[in-house]
Amino acid sequence: MTTVSGQHVSDYMHRQLEVVPQDTSVVTVATQMRTRSVGSVLIECFDRPHNDCRIAGIVTETDLVAKVLAPGRVPSRTSMADIMSSPLITIAPTRPMVDASHLMQSKNVRHLVVTEGTDVLGIISIRDLVRHFVDADGGPVQALTNVYRPLSVLMKTAIETIGSDETALEAAQRMADKHIGALFVMEAEELVGIITEGDLVRKLLAYQLDPQTLRVGALMNSPLLDIDINRTIRDASERMSAKRIRHLAVTEHEKVVGVLSIRDLVKNSLRMRPDRIIVGEVRDSSALDMLQAMNTGHDGSMTTVHANSTDDVIKRLEVLVLMALDLPTWDAVAEMAALSRAMGGYHIPIDNNVGLDVGRKVAVFSWPKYQEYFNGTAKVRP
After folding, report:
1. Number of folded domains that form the chain
2. Considering the domain boundaries, does residue 145 fall inside one?
3. Strand bridging mode 90-91 / 111-116
4. Residue 99 C-alpha from the chain's centroid
5. Where are the alpha helices (DSSP H) in the chain?
6. Does a structural domain hold residue 138?
7. Could you list the residue range(s) of the whole structural domain that residue 258 is in?
8. Does residue 16 lie within any of the structural domains?
9. Do 87 and 186 belong together in one domain?
10. 187 and 254 belong to one structural domain
11. Are 59 and 29 spatial neighbours (Cβ–Cβ below 8 Å)?
């Protein structure tokens, strides 16, 4: 497991770059992506000896699917100059990792080129963000192990599917139209696998197969890799890393109920890494989660609690936490009744402390009688 030794881009970027000339064909680049197990290549500038430009653009798996396969271009006749994304989206090596994440999200990309002046130093990918935010020992997600939510609140419930007998061309077009990186594969009304951008690049383009005749069933990954809905974000990350995948099916009672992507991991892990924690009003068992979150070493936190006085805020929080622990006590119930000032039918519209005192006395007197009635020991209804 990686240990967090720093939080800057330079600590996680890859310095060994895959760089190709602009006249390189799609087939050559797809083959390079397959053999080197990379999801992007950088494109050299033309006429480099006569200018300061080294890198003109970048081509990713998404570019190959959306700009070559989906529109039906001939891969062997399409060069990097035709499809590269330019200008580059860059980040300085001294920037914090959280800035890299925000930039990827705002630009909807999975790779950033790391530059210093005119020098290209490396590249950082969304997998590197997961290494920092999710996987690292002492990282943000591990620090909040007892607070963050299960996958049921992180996953997407809308699942995009395609039939196993549909063509690879149709899969590419659907991915491009939906701006997604994977489709679940259906066969006889059952989910049997998944097909991704990487599959289209490495299994189809690299071997110059025909997307109009090749079926999805021949390219898909099967059986479907999944994870139980009650597992955590870190469990999902470890499974993705072990299998070198970016998507997981989320199951409940062995039925697929959602999908989780590597982008979801990063986005939700950032929510677990606040500089400050601000929670709206707490009025139920969520008070326990709030207190746990506020005791994880952050510089400051804020929430609101409704109570009759500042002194009673602490007492009300005690009651709310007891509700979360599912360990009610008669004293706690009596205290809650006192705070409501309604247990005995009293509401004193004068000084708040006087009203509170009267309400507490009424509750202390009346609650034991109610307890006797509920236990079946009272002869008459109190």
Report:
1. 3
2. no
3. parallel
4. 16
5. 26-36, 61-64, 80-83, 97-107, 126-130, 140-143, 168-178, 197-199, 216-219, 233-243, 262-271, 286-293, 310-325, 330-340, 352-375
6. no
7. 151-270
8. yes
9. no
10. yes
11. yes
pTM of the model: 0.66
CA within 13 Å, CB half, 144: 26
* Final residue of a structural domain among 248, 270, 292: 270
Q: What is the pLDDT along the chain (382 residues), one digit of tens a residue?
A: 333 334 789 988 999 899 999 999 999 999 999 999 999 999 998 765 545 568 899 999 999 999 999 999 999 999 999 999 999 999 999 998 888 888 888 888 999 999 998 889 999 998 888 777 765 555 555 544 444 456 777 788 888 999 999 999 999 999 999 999 999 999 988 899 999 999 999 999 999 999 999 999 999 999 889 999 888 777 888 888 888 888 889 998 888 988 988 888 777 665 555 555 666 677 766 676 667 666 655 556 677 888 888 778 877 877 777 766 555 555 555 555 555 444 444 444 444 555 556 666 666 666 666 556 555 555 544 4
Range list of H helices, 244-294 = 262-271, 286-293
Q: What share of the chain is helix, strand, coil (3-state, %, to 5)?
A: 45, 20, 35
Could you give the angle at the alpha carbon of 255 between the alpha carbons of 252 and 256, nearest 5°? Answer: 90
Q: Would you say 90 and 115 are in contact if contact means Cβ atoms under 8 Å apart?
A: yes
> Domain check: are 195 and 241 in the same one?
yes
Name the E strands within 140-213: 161-163, 182-187, 190-196
Is 253 contained in some domain? Answer: yes
Is residue 309 located within the same domain as residue 258? no
Going by C-alpha positions, the residue among 88, 334, 75 that lies closest to residue 211 is 75
In this structure, the answer to whether residues 262 and 299 fall within a common structural domain is no
Q: Is there a single domain that holds both residue 258 and residue 292?
A: no
Q: Is there a single domain that holds both residue 219 and residue 292?
A: no
Residue type for position 152: S
The CATH number linked to 235 is 3.10.580.10
Instruction: Choose the final residue of a domain: 241, 270, 299.
Output: 270
Clarify whether residues 252 and 314 are in a common domain: no
Cα-trace Rg, the chain: 29
User: Using an 8 Å Cβ cutoff, are 170 and 193 in contact?
Assistant: no
* Three-state helix/strand/coil letters over 10-41: HHCCECCCCEECCCCEHHHHHHHHHHHCCCEE
- Helices of type H across 56-203: 61-64, 80-83, 97-107, 126-130, 140-143, 168-178, 197-199
